[in-house]
Amino acid sequence: MASAASLCPAGAARQAATRDPDDLKAWLQLASAPGVGPATARLLLAAFGLPQQVLAQSVAALSSVVPKKHARAVLARPGAGLPALVERTLAWLGTPGNHVVTLADDAYPARLFDLPDPPPLLYIKGDPALLSRPAVAIVGARGATEQGKRDALAFGRALSESGLAVISGLALGVDAAAHAGGLLGSGGTVAVTGTGPDRVYPAENLALAHDVAARGAIVTEFPLGMPGMPANFPRRNRIIAALARGVLVVEAAARSGSLITARLAADLGREVFAVPGSIHAPLSKGCHVLIRQGAKLVECMEDVLEEINLGPGPMIGPMPVPAGAPARSAAATPTPAAQPGSELSDFADRSDPLLAALGYDPVTLDALCERSGQPPETAAARLLELELAGHAERLPGNLFRRLG
């Protein structure tokens, strides 16, 4: 694995997280040069040292390392917005808890050097040290079932209580539940986002983001003002995979971003874990694909810990909502409305609280009433309608489960 020191020539001093305007301007200029991505920036830094030294070279010198079009882009006159971005970033750094960590900083997480394109800069709200703590990523569907969210919350809490940081992407569903669980243990949680550090996407997770920044860390490679553009999230996923020792997929459709994160993790030599589910559940199909491809089937936390050599820990058991969980935990994992591209089955009506609460694992009527907030007589009548429509079935012992 490459080290941070290898990015600078021999004898070049490594610096603390930068607040010097000229230094910050050079980093931002290099990172924002048109057509010059993190992989090209890494090559230039390894060859010439810090960004100010890169920018002092000639086109011919840079062209000995990267294609000439990239060399010209790096040395072109900076865009008109660069001075304003520098000022905004310096002002952002003036807020306690905000950090910019560069490839040349000691605080830069070493595991990101396993990537061919580690981000030149990381914007961090919270504790930068958490990014270097042993960690497991928990990812899954945005439109997760209630059971899936409870599983993610319980695994997140158990892993955090074992001392591992819990990494996820601050999305709705599984991500939000995993972060909420990670906040309940000593390991903490790290949210890797696809926006600038001054934005939260989706807005429903604003309260959760404040909690993560206060007691964990939010990290992004995107500059201030960057909105949540679709192309940003695959880039975010590679950072999630690289920071973790393993990736646990709780629920995922057969084609989902969570499977991309799992593939990236496998390519980096990380462990891949998947929680199995009903063969009828659309959001179990992605996990079953991973298991067939060699991912470890996970039923309890020991299944994770024995693969990453951290020893045994407390059993998760039947995945109840952890006792003492803060009231905000439920709010941090809202049930999203159906929207184009969401990972929901075709028949799912997310405006129906009972259908949203009914998972693919058997559940009692009392539990459904508690989840959905409906009285027993209303829930029983709606369950009968779902049975007749082929969306649910009644099992022995007065248990119910959803059908795909």
UniProtKB/TrEMBL annotation:
InterPro entries: DprA, DprA_WH, DrpA_SLOG, RuvA_2-like, WH-like_DNA-bd_sf. One of its GO terms (biological process) is DNA-mediated transformation. Residues 100-308 form the Smf/DprA SLOG domain. Residues 337-398 form the DprA winged helix domain. Residues 324-340 have a biased composition (Low complexity). It comes from the Bacteria. Pfam families: DNA_processg_A, WHD_DprA. Residues 322-344 are annotated as: Disordered. Belongs to the DprA/Smf family. This is DNA-protecting protein DprA.
